[in-house]
Amino acid sequence: MPVLQSYIAGQWLGETPAKALPSAINGDTIAHTHEETIDFAQVVDYGRSTGVKSLLALDFQQRAAILKELAIYIQQRKAELYDISYHTGCTRADSWIDIDGGFGTLFTYASTGRKELPSGNVAHEGPVAQLGKDNHFTGTHILVPRRGVSVHINAFNFPIWGMLEKFAPAFLAGMPCIVKPATATSYVTEAAVRVINDSGLLPEGALQLIIGGTGDLLDRLEEQDFVTFTGSADTALKLKSHPNIMARSIPFNAEADSLNSAIMAPDVTPEDEEFDIFAKEVVKEMTAKAGQKCTAIRRVMVPAEHLDALADRIKQRLSKISVGDPKEEGVRMGALSSSDQLRDVHEAIDRLLETSECVFGKDSSLKPVGTGVENGAFIAPHLLINRNPLEDGGAHDIEAFGPVATLMPYNGIDEALTLAAKGKGSLVTTLTTKNPAIAAEMIPVLAAQHGRLQILDAEAAKESTGHGSPLPILKHGGPGRAGGGEELGGIRAVHHYLQRTAIQGSPTMVAAVTREYVRGAKVIENDVHPFRRHFDDLQVGESLLTHRRTVTEADIVNFGCLSGDHFYMHFDDIAARKTQFGQRIAHGYFVLSAAAGLFVYPGESPVLANYGLDTLRFIAPVAPGDTIRARLTCKRKIDQGRTSPEGHPQGVVMWDVAVTNQDDELVASYDILTLVAKRQ
Prior knowledge:
The structure is a single chain. By secondary structure, this protein is α/β, with parallel strands linked by helices. The protein is built from 20 helices and 27 strands. The strands form 7 sheets. A 7-stranded mixed beta sheet has the order 14-15-16-13-12-17-18, with helices on both faces. Strands 22, 23, 24, 25, 26 and 27 form a 6-stranded antiparallel beta sheet that branches. Helix 5 packs across helix 15. It is globular and about 90 Å long. The chain starts with 5 loop residues before the first strand and ends with a strand.
């Protein structure tokens, strides 16, 4: 049997077998951990020196491009990962969540980075605040790489996705990652790291892998480092209270298993489509990954009058679930990840039965489908009912991390909310209702104690990704028992790994640091129109102050006729006099269009396309007789390495536009985004 190896300081370590890791399907040994001791001083030193240096030699945009290439590479090699994932007890659909979900997250963060992060390694988190009366002193926030290592301690249930959903934002943020997977399924993580390493795409030191224990790793971390954990609430507490983590205020993010709920609202009856949708969702969450998901439904709240009907509906569906070797035709639920996990789940079920009754699973004589599965970690789905759920304990405190859910009857919305709160915080709760008013009443209350809320009805069910599916663009994490942390959430996850710092200074100095033009900073003016300059030559701060244009009544009438906008403020002199403006004013969009006419270079130029406006504000009215002019300034450049369909290189330029009147008062302000060609 192979010996799993750690990947430390650019080398694979481990030749002597230690702990045997069995297949969840048949109990045969798949691999061994290694006996060799890891030098954790070397691990962190290598990450902080080589890893940080090589990552910060790249910028946000370049690292985002690597993530995309890596996602493509893993996708091309995913078949071999499916083969080894099978031994964790996964069906094909279960492995899809872990493997395709893993490289899918890389794709998402590659896109997020390209769209939302600048070139360079300083991200400006505006807006800029004017701190002095005459705008000589300003303040804002920047986000910069922490220049430390990020330690990721992962759970056994998602050995690939669990690694990559943490790695992607940390890598974008410029932090080398030290990954410690749960031992039981570490053979899958090791296989994935070998694929990643084979790609040759990652900078040196960007990723290290620990097989086995963490030794004195946490003792060696420093203030610039970061720790994330996924697993049980008890282990999260133990790690979070580690003396070195507390003494050095090392950021710690926990995503812990929680007692997630599904609530059927009082308006749903057995005759409704939503009733069956709800039952289907519960069964799916019980059986996907054999219930081994931190987001799985553990507590099911149902109106008391529909308890028996829902129990029957769920049992009908569970009776059709075939358990056994995932390679056998018709098998819909595989095994738990290990015999240790099987023992833990049985023990938890026994404790739950002190307050509940089992209505499906306990008395069944499970015969897993397949040959040679006698030593596999198989278990039947278990449906329990707690008929006195307002009492503390039981399913409100005990989690069986497997295909186990407990039904709980309630009377009235307030009681349902009380039951949900007894879980002391969760990652996700689903509310099934047909009535928007009920959703509007319950969701704000539930939101205080649950990290994600799914509102499920017949319409949403057509495209819903499901109760148990964290999405890269949405926050994953929850309060209380769920750990109090946050992962994913799009760009938010990247920001978690960056250091946020307030800076103060003159507009010119703030602009120099942020590499982004700040209103009031010194500008660069020359004889060449900014639109005539290629992306490579254009400098942040290059500016054009246009000639003037006096707005006439004819302008307003013509624009109104052209656009069809005959709003009274533009055409009814009597009505306009009664308003705070005291007179007719020009259309805001006329001012916008007139400004474009003032600053646009009409001839052929490197500017390829205008694809959007941001932060548009009409600040002061423009009346007939007012004279306007515009200042166009290069605010930000993002070199995304894009090419057009013809293969021409280009970048994104954001321009600051300030439109002023004859008294130099700001009347309109906005940013425009353009694609600008690079020099060939």
